[in-house]
Specification:
Layout: E1 4-10, H1 33-42, E2 47-54, H2 59-65, E3 75-76, H3 81-92, E4 99-104, H4 112-121, E5 127-133, E6 138-141, E7 147-151, E8 157-166, H5 167-176, H6 185-191, E9 196-200, H7 211-221, E10 239-253, E11 257-260, E12 263-266, E13 270-272, H8 279-291, H9 297-300, H10 314-326, E14 330-339, H11 349-360, E15 367-372, H12 378-381, E16 385-397
Parallel strand pairs: 1-2, 1-4, 2-3, 5-9, 14-15
Antiparallel strand pairs: 4-8, 5-8, 6-7, 10-13, 10-16, 11-12, 14-16
Helix pairs in contact: 3-5, 5-6, 8-10
The structure holds magnesium ion.
Protein backbone atom coordinates (compact mmCIF):
# COMPACT_ATOMS: atom_id res chain seq x y z
CA UNK A 1 0.00 0.00 0.00
CA UNK A 2 1.20 3.49 -0.81
CA UNK A 3 2.52 5.34 2.26
CA UNK A 4 1.85 9.06 2.16
CA UNK A 5 3.23 11.54 4.69
CA UNK A 6 2.17 15.17 5.11
CA UNK A 7 5.01 17.65 5.62
CA UNK A 8 3.69 20.91 7.08
CA UNK A 9 5.98 23.93 6.86
CA UNK A 10 5.51 26.07 9.97
CA UNK A 11 8.99 27.57 10.33
CA UNK A 12 8.15 31.05 9.02
CA UNK A 13 8.32 34.04 11.32
CA UNK A 14 5.34 35.69 9.69
CA UNK A 15 7.19 38.95 9.22
CA UNK A 16 4.53 40.29 6.87
CA UNK A 17 1.95 39.61 9.55
CA UNK A 18 3.29 42.19 11.97
CA UNK A 19 2.01 40.81 15.30
CA UNK A 20 4.13 39.30 18.08
CA UNK A 21 2.93 35.73 17.42
CA UNK A 22 3.67 34.03 14.08
CA UNK A 23 0.42 33.62 12.16
CA UNK A 24 0.45 29.81 12.33
CA UNK A 25 0.24 29.95 16.13
CA UNK A 26 -2.55 32.53 16.31
CA UNK A 27 -5.81 31.21 17.68
CA UNK A 28 -8.50 30.66 15.09
CA UNK A 29 -11.81 30.11 16.85
CA UNK A 30 -10.01 28.35 19.74
CA UNK A 31 -7.28 26.09 18.35
CA UNK A 32 -4.16 27.51 16.71
CA UNK A 33 -4.16 27.91 12.92
CA UNK A 34 -1.52 25.15 12.81
CA UNK A 35 -3.72 22.72 14.74
CA UNK A 36 -6.53 23.21 12.22
CA UNK A 37 -4.11 22.67 9.34
CA UNK A 38 -2.80 19.47 10.94
CA UNK A 39 -6.36 18.24 11.45
CA UNK A 40 -7.04 18.39 7.71
CA UNK A 41 -4.37 15.75 7.18
CA UNK A 42 -4.91 13.74 10.38
CA UNK A 43 -8.58 13.29 9.44
CA UNK A 44 -7.72 12.03 5.96
CA UNK A 45 -7.55 8.23 5.62
CA UNK A 46 -4.77 8.27 3.02
CA UNK A 47 -2.29 10.15 5.24
CA UNK A 48 -0.11 7.80 7.32
CA UNK A 49 1.77 10.42 9.34
CA UNK A 50 2.20 14.16 9.77
CA UNK A 51 5.58 15.86 10.13
CA UNK A 52 5.82 19.55 11.03
CA UNK A 53 8.85 21.77 10.38
CA UNK A 54 9.08 24.53 13.02
CA UNK A 55 11.30 27.46 13.92
CA UNK A 56 13.51 26.47 16.89
CA UNK A 57 12.26 29.49 18.84
CA UNK A 58 8.66 28.25 18.53
CA UNK A 59 9.06 24.92 20.32
CA UNK A 60 6.90 25.92 23.29
CA UNK A 61 4.22 27.39 21.05
CA UNK A 62 4.29 24.23 18.95
CA UNK A 63 3.98 21.93 21.95
CA UNK A 64 1.02 23.93 23.20
CA UNK A 65 -0.66 23.98 19.78
CA UNK A 66 -0.46 20.23 19.11
CA UNK A 67 -0.99 18.86 22.59
CA UNK A 68 -2.58 15.41 22.45
CA UNK A 69 -1.94 14.91 18.73
CA UNK A 70 0.00 11.88 17.49
CA UNK A 71 2.62 13.44 15.18
CA UNK A 72 6.18 12.68 14.14
CA UNK A 73 8.65 14.67 16.27
CA UNK A 74 8.99 18.23 14.91
CA UNK A 75 12.04 19.18 12.86
CA UNK A 76 13.85 22.52 13.04
CA UNK A 77 13.61 24.51 9.81
CA UNK A 78 16.19 26.71 8.11
CA UNK A 79 16.62 30.31 7.02
CA UNK A 80 14.27 30.09 4.02
CA UNK A 81 11.15 28.13 3.18
CA UNK A 82 13.18 26.13 0.68
CA UNK A 83 15.72 25.22 3.41
CA UNK A 84 12.96 24.28 5.81
CA UNK A 85 11.32 21.93 3.32
CA UNK A 86 14.64 20.30 2.51
CA UNK A 87 15.33 19.70 6.21
CA UNK A 88 11.84 18.28 6.62
CA UNK A 89 12.38 15.91 3.70
CA UNK A 90 15.76 14.83 5.09
CA UNK A 91 14.08 13.96 8.39
CA UNK A 92 11.87 11.48 6.52
CA UNK A 93 14.69 9.93 4.51
CA UNK A 94 15.50 7.13 6.97
CA UNK A 95 12.00 5.68 6.62
CA UNK A 96 11.09 7.14 3.24
CA UNK A 97 7.39 7.34 2.36
CA UNK A 98 6.22 6.72 -1.21
CA UNK A 99 4.55 10.12 -1.46
CA UNK A 100 4.94 13.37 0.43
CA UNK A 101 2.42 16.22 0.46
CA UNK A 102 4.08 19.53 1.36
CA UNK A 103 1.68 22.12 2.80
CA UNK A 104 1.82 25.63 4.26
CA UNK A 105 0.91 25.77 7.97
CA UNK A 106 -1.06 28.96 7.34
CA UNK A 107 -3.61 27.31 5.02
CA UNK A 108 -6.04 25.85 7.58
CA UNK A 109 -9.07 25.47 5.28
CA UNK A 110 -7.74 22.57 3.25
CA UNK A 111 -10.44 20.05 2.47
CA UNK A 112 -10.11 16.35 1.91
CA UNK A 113 -11.13 16.54 -1.75
CA UNK A 114 -8.10 18.70 -2.59
CA UNK A 115 -5.83 16.17 -0.87
CA UNK A 116 -7.51 13.43 -2.91
CA UNK A 117 -6.97 15.29 -6.17
CA UNK A 118 -3.26 15.78 -5.49
CA UNK A 119 -2.77 12.14 -4.50
CA UNK A 120 -4.73 10.91 -7.51
CA UNK A 121 -2.60 12.95 -9.91
CA UNK A 122 0.57 11.43 -8.42
CA UNK A 123 -0.51 8.17 -10.01
CA UNK A 124 0.47 9.70 -13.34
CA UNK A 125 2.92 12.52 -12.62
CA UNK A 126 5.96 12.91 -10.37
CA UNK A 127 4.49 16.04 -8.84
CA UNK A 128 1.01 17.53 -8.42
CA UNK A 129 0.07 20.99 -7.21
CA UNK A 130 -3.28 22.35 -6.06
CA UNK A 131 -3.80 25.51 -8.08
CA UNK A 132 -6.48 27.88 -9.36
CA UNK A 133 -6.74 29.47 -12.79
CA UNK A 134 -6.08 33.24 -12.81
CA UNK A 135 -9.40 34.96 -13.51
CA UNK A 136 -8.47 38.61 -12.91
CA UNK A 137 -6.81 40.65 -15.64
CA UNK A 138 -3.07 40.71 -14.90
CA UNK A 139 -1.03 43.94 -15.18
CA UNK A 140 2.68 44.58 -15.14
CA UNK A 141 3.77 47.70 -13.22
CA UNK A 142 6.67 49.95 -14.25
CA UNK A 143 9.05 51.76 -11.89
CA UNK A 144 6.86 54.86 -11.92
CA UNK A 145 3.87 52.88 -10.65
CA UNK A 146 2.00 52.91 -13.94
CA UNK A 147 0.68 49.95 -15.84
CA UNK A 148 3.29 48.83 -18.32
CA UNK A 149 0.92 46.49 -20.06
CA UNK A 150 -1.51 43.63 -19.71
CA UNK A 151 -0.19 40.10 -19.28
CA UNK A 152 -1.97 37.37 -21.20
CA UNK A 153 -3.56 35.26 -18.45
CA UNK A 154 -4.19 32.29 -20.72
CA UNK A 155 -2.72 29.23 -19.04
CA UNK A 156 -1.80 31.12 -15.86
CA UNK A 157 -2.57 29.44 -12.53
CA UNK A 158 -2.04 30.47 -8.92
CA UNK A 159 -0.18 27.74 -7.04
CA UNK A 160 -1.50 26.74 -3.62
CA UNK A 161 -0.45 23.87 -1.44
CA UNK A 162 -0.55 20.91 -0.92
CA UNK A 163 2.16 20.18 -3.42
CA UNK A 164 2.59 16.43 -3.64
CA UNK A 165 5.53 14.49 -4.96
CA UNK A 166 6.97 11.03 -5.23
CA UNK A 167 9.33 11.19 -2.28
CA UNK A 168 12.69 10.09 -3.75
CA UNK A 169 12.30 12.49 -6.69
CA UNK A 170 11.56 15.59 -4.60
CA UNK A 171 14.25 14.76 -2.03
CA UNK A 172 16.84 14.51 -4.83
CA UNK A 173 15.55 17.73 -6.42
CA UNK A 174 15.85 19.63 -3.12
CA UNK A 175 19.35 18.28 -2.48
CA UNK A 176 20.45 19.54 -5.90
CA UNK A 177 18.67 22.90 -5.80
CA UNK A 178 20.84 25.98 -5.24
CA UNK A 179 19.92 28.22 -2.33
CA UNK A 180 18.23 30.74 -4.57
CA UNK A 181 14.99 31.16 -2.66
CA UNK A 182 12.67 29.15 -4.89
CA UNK A 183 9.25 30.07 -3.49
CA UNK A 184 7.54 26.74 -3.82
CA UNK A 185 8.39 23.09 -4.17
CA UNK A 186 6.93 22.87 -7.64
CA UNK A 187 9.66 25.33 -8.70
CA UNK A 188 12.29 23.03 -7.16
CA UNK A 189 10.74 20.08 -8.98
CA UNK A 190 10.46 21.92 -12.30
CA UNK A 191 14.10 22.91 -12.05
CA UNK A 192 14.99 19.22 -11.72
CA UNK A 193 12.93 18.39 -14.79
CA UNK A 194 10.09 16.62 -12.96
CA UNK A 195 6.63 16.61 -14.51
CA UNK A 196 4.31 18.59 -12.23
CA UNK A 197 0.55 18.32 -12.78
CA UNK A 198 -1.81 21.20 -11.88
CA UNK A 199 -5.02 20.02 -10.18
CA UNK A 200 -7.92 22.20 -9.02
CA UNK A 201 -7.34 23.82 -5.64
CA UNK A 202 -10.00 25.57 -3.58
CA UNK A 203 -10.70 29.27 -2.95
CA UNK A 204 -11.18 28.46 0.75
CA UNK A 205 -7.64 27.11 0.91
CA UNK A 206 -6.11 30.58 1.08
CA UNK A 207 -2.94 31.45 2.97
CA UNK A 208 -3.30 33.57 6.08
CA UNK A 209 -0.71 36.30 5.56
CA UNK A 210 -2.16 39.55 6.91
CA UNK A 211 -4.38 40.58 9.84
CA UNK A 212 -7.21 40.94 7.33
CA UNK A 213 -6.69 37.32 6.28
CA UNK A 214 -7.00 36.22 9.90
CA UNK A 215 -10.26 38.17 10.25
CA UNK A 216 -11.52 36.57 7.03
CA UNK A 217 -10.61 33.15 8.45
CA UNK A 218 -12.49 33.90 11.68
CA UNK A 219 -15.49 35.03 9.66
CA UNK A 220 -15.40 31.78 7.70
CA UNK A 221 -15.64 29.83 10.95
CA UNK A 222 -18.76 31.69 12.03
CA UNK A 223 -20.26 32.17 8.60
CA UNK A 224 -23.34 30.06 9.26
CA UNK A 225 -24.29 31.76 12.52
CA UNK A 226 -26.92 34.51 12.17
CA UNK A 227 -25.28 36.75 14.76
CA UNK A 228 -21.75 37.51 15.81
CA UNK A 229 -20.52 36.50 19.30
CA UNK A 230 -21.38 40.02 20.50
CA UNK A 231 -24.97 39.50 19.42
CA UNK A 232 -24.79 42.05 16.63
CA UNK A 233 -25.87 40.98 13.16
CA UNK A 234 -22.95 39.50 11.28
CA UNK A 235 -21.84 40.58 7.84
CA UNK A 236 -23.38 38.74 4.92
CA UNK A 237 -22.17 35.13 4.99
CA UNK A 238 -19.38 34.37 2.55
CA UNK A 239 -20.97 30.99 1.77
CA UNK A 240 -24.37 29.71 0.96
CA UNK A 241 -25.83 26.23 1.05
CA UNK A 242 -27.70 24.66 -1.85
CA UNK A 243 -29.50 21.35 -2.02
CA UNK A 244 -30.21 18.92 -4.80
CA UNK A 245 -32.18 15.69 -5.07
CA UNK A 246 -31.76 12.63 -7.19
CA UNK A 247 -33.86 9.57 -8.00
CA UNK A 248 -33.02 6.45 -9.99
CA UNK A 249 -34.47 3.06 -10.89
CA UNK A 250 -32.96 -0.05 -12.43
CA UNK A 251 -34.65 -3.31 -13.37
CA UNK A 252 -33.52 -6.67 -12.01
CA UNK A 253 -32.17 -9.24 -14.48
CA UNK A 254 -29.85 -12.21 -14.52
CA UNK A 255 -26.74 -12.03 -12.38
CA UNK A 256 -25.14 -12.94 -9.08
CA UNK A 257 -24.55 -9.49 -7.55
CA UNK A 258 -25.80 -5.95 -7.58
CA UNK A 259 -23.61 -2.83 -7.39
CA UNK A 260 -25.00 -0.52 -4.72
CA UNK A 261 -23.28 2.66 -3.53
CA UNK A 262 -20.02 1.40 -5.00
CA UNK A 263 -20.13 -1.98 -3.24
CA UNK A 264 -20.74 -5.37 -4.92
CA UNK A 265 -23.56 -7.02 -2.94
CA UNK A 266 -24.05 -10.76 -3.59
CA UNK A 267 -27.61 -11.48 -4.79
CA UNK A 268 -29.42 -14.02 -6.93
CA UNK A 269 -30.15 -11.34 -9.54
CA UNK A 270 -28.28 -8.46 -11.14
CA UNK A 271 -29.40 -4.96 -12.08
CA UNK A 272 -29.67 -4.10 -15.76
CA UNK A 273 -28.24 -0.86 -17.08
CA UNK A 274 -25.85 0.68 -19.54
CA UNK A 275 -23.24 1.26 -16.81
CA UNK A 276 -22.92 -0.95 -13.72
CA UNK A 277 -26.53 0.06 -12.85
CA UNK A 278 -25.63 1.32 -9.38
CA UNK A 279 -28.90 3.03 -8.44
CA UNK A 280 -27.41 4.47 -5.25
CA UNK A 281 -24.49 6.22 -6.93
CA UNK A 282 -26.73 7.38 -9.78
CA UNK A 283 -29.20 9.01 -7.38
CA UNK A 284 -26.32 10.61 -5.47
CA UNK A 285 -24.72 11.89 -8.67
CA UNK A 286 -27.98 13.52 -9.74
CA UNK A 287 -28.40 15.05 -6.27
CA UNK A 288 -24.93 16.64 -6.39
CA UNK A 289 -25.46 17.85 -9.96
CA UNK A 290 -28.84 19.23 -8.92
CA UNK A 291 -27.35 21.23 -6.06
CA UNK A 292 -25.10 23.13 -8.47
CA UNK A 293 -27.60 23.33 -11.31
CA UNK A 294 -25.39 21.23 -13.57
CA UNK A 295 -27.98 19.11 -15.34
CA UNK A 296 -28.32 15.39 -14.78
CA UNK A 297 -26.25 12.25 -15.12
CA UNK A 298 -27.56 11.52 -18.62
CA UNK A 299 -26.41 14.96 -19.76
CA UNK A 300 -22.83 14.32 -18.62
CA UNK A 301 -22.68 10.61 -19.47
CA UNK A 302 -25.14 9.90 -22.32
CA UNK A 303 -26.34 6.27 -22.35
CA UNK A 304 -25.89 6.44 -26.14
CA UNK A 305 -22.13 6.86 -25.68
CA UNK A 306 -20.46 3.41 -25.84
CA UNK A 307 -17.58 4.52 -23.59
CA UNK A 308 -19.91 4.36 -20.54
CA UNK A 309 -21.02 0.78 -21.28
CA UNK A 310 -20.38 -1.21 -18.10
CA UNK A 311 -18.65 1.81 -16.54
CA UNK A 312 -18.20 1.81 -12.76
CA UNK A 313 -20.51 4.50 -11.46
CA UNK A 314 -17.92 5.95 -9.08
CA UNK A 315 -16.67 7.81 -12.19
CA UNK A 316 -20.00 9.64 -12.41
CA UNK A 317 -20.08 10.64 -8.75
CA UNK A 318 -16.41 11.70 -8.74
CA UNK A 319 -17.13 13.87 -11.78
CA UNK A 320 -20.01 15.58 -9.98
CA UNK A 321 -17.70 16.15 -6.99
CA UNK A 322 -15.09 17.74 -9.24
CA UNK A 323 -17.70 20.11 -10.69
CA UNK A 324 -18.48 21.28 -7.14
CA UNK A 325 -14.77 21.78 -6.40
CA UNK A 326 -14.27 23.70 -9.65
CA UNK A 327 -16.91 26.17 -8.44
CA UNK A 328 -14.92 26.70 -5.25
CA UNK A 329 -17.46 24.70 -3.24
CA UNK A 330 -17.58 21.53 -1.22
CA UNK A 331 -20.14 18.85 -0.41
CA UNK A 332 -21.46 19.34 3.12
CA UNK A 333 -23.61 16.22 3.36
CA UNK A 334 -25.14 13.37 1.36
CA UNK A 335 -28.09 11.15 2.22
CA UNK A 336 -29.29 8.24 0.08
CA UNK A 337 -32.15 5.77 0.61
CA UNK A 338 -32.10 2.43 -1.21
CA UNK A 339 -35.56 1.00 -1.86
CA UNK A 340 -35.97 -2.78 -2.26
CA UNK A 341 -37.24 -5.91 -0.55
CA UNK A 342 -33.98 -7.76 -1.17
CA UNK A 343 -30.98 -7.89 -0.93
CA UNK A 344 -30.56 -6.85 2.69
CA UNK A 345 -28.66 -3.57 2.82
CA UNK A 346 -27.83 -3.32 6.54
CA UNK A 347 -24.75 -5.57 6.58
CA UNK A 348 -23.20 -3.59 3.71
CA UNK A 349 -24.04 -0.11 4.95
CA UNK A 350 -20.65 0.69 6.60
CA UNK A 351 -18.80 -0.36 3.42
CA UNK A 352 -21.14 1.81 1.32
CA UNK A 353 -20.62 4.86 3.54
CA UNK A 354 -16.85 4.31 3.41
CA UNK A 355 -16.86 3.89 -0.38
CA UNK A 356 -18.90 7.05 -1.03
CA UNK A 357 -16.58 8.96 1.32
CA UNK A 358 -13.58 7.59 -0.56
CA UNK A 359 -14.95 8.57 -3.97
CA UNK A 360 -15.59 12.17 -2.89
CA UNK A 361 -13.00 12.65 -0.16
CA UNK A 362 -15.71 13.10 2.49
CA UNK A 363 -15.55 12.15 6.15
CA UNK A 364 -17.99 9.30 6.97
CA UNK A 365 -20.13 11.55 9.17
CA UNK A 366 -21.04 13.55 6.07
CA UNK A 367 -22.45 10.46 4.34
CA UNK A 368 -25.67 8.63 5.19
CA UNK A 369 -26.94 5.41 3.58
CA UNK A 370 -30.40 4.16 4.52
CA UNK A 371 -32.70 1.45 3.20
CA UNK A 372 -36.39 0.73 3.17
CA UNK A 373 -38.82 -1.72 1.65
CA UNK A 374 -42.17 -0.73 0.14
CA UNK A 375 -44.10 -3.39 2.08
CA UNK A 376 -44.24 -5.58 -1.03
CA UNK A 377 -46.17 -2.87 -2.89
CA UNK A 378 -45.30 -1.59 -6.34
CA UNK A 379 -42.44 -2.63 -8.63
CA UNK A 380 -39.92 -2.66 -5.81
CA UNK A 381 -42.32 -4.69 -3.68
CA UNK A 382 -42.75 -7.24 -6.45
CA UNK A 383 -38.97 -7.47 -6.83
CA UNK A 384 -38.98 -6.20 -10.42
CA UNK A 385 -36.34 -3.60 -9.76
CA UNK A 386 -34.67 -1.28 -7.28
CA UNK A 387 -35.00 2.43 -6.67
CA UNK A 388 -32.91 4.97 -4.82
CA UNK A 389 -33.42 8.55 -3.81
CA UNK A 390 -30.80 10.94 -2.55
CA UNK A 391 -30.29 14.47 -1.34
CA UNK A 392 -27.07 16.48 -1.40
CA UNK A 393 -26.16 19.65 0.47
CA UNK A 394 -23.42 21.69 -1.14
CA UNK A 395 -21.60 24.77 0.12
CA UNK A 396 -20.75 27.37 -2.52
CA UNK A 397 -19.23 30.84 -2.42
CA UNK A 398 -22.14 33.21 -1.80
CA UNK A 399 -23.61 34.96 -4.79
CA UNK A 400 -21.96 32.69 -7.31
CA UNK A 401 -24.01 32.06 -10.41
CA UNK A 402 -23.48 28.45 -11.32
MG1 LIG B 1 -29.32 4.88 -13.44
Amino acid sequence: MTRTVALIVAAGRGTRFGGPVPKQYCALGGPAVLARTIAAFRDHPAIAAVQVVIHPDDRERYDAAVIGLDLLPPVAGGASRQDSVRLGLESLADAPPDLVLIHDAARPFLDAAAIDRVIAALGEAEGAVAALPVTDTVKRQDAAGNSAGTVDRTGLWRAQTPQGFRFPAILAAHREAPAEGLTDDAAVAERAGLAVRLVPGDERNFKITTEDDLRRAEAMLTETSPTSPSGAPSAAPAWEFRMGMGFDVHRFGPGDRVWLCGVAVPHDRGLIGHSDADVGLHALTDAVLGAIGAGDIGHHFPPSDPQWKGAPSDLFLAHAGRLVAERGGSIAQLDVTLICERPKIGPHRPAMVARIGEILGLAPDRVSVKATTTEQLGFTGRGEGMAAQAIATVRLPAGQDV
